[in-house]
Amino acid sequence: MNSSQPSKNTPAFFLQAGISFAVALLAMVFAVLYLPVDGWIRAFLGLGIMYLTTSTFTLAKCVRDAQENQSVHARLDQARVDRLLAEHDPFKAVS
Prior knowledge:
The protein is mainly α. The chain is built from two helices and no strands.
């Protein structure tokens, strides 16, 4: 059985994802600020941006936690199988 760890993200990928998120968020904030509408409409859209941003972080955390939980269960199952195989004696007489 192969017990390889899932691949980790490189620092460059993490940096790229962070920059991409920051650019997208700043572009939305800039668009809302310069939208030719009343202030209360801008405020409503700003609240929408804040809600979307916090929901994005919450969803990312939930996905990460689910993947880590699945990884822990897989490692525990692999450890149990390894222990059973180590304790197994094929030459032991069955009584």
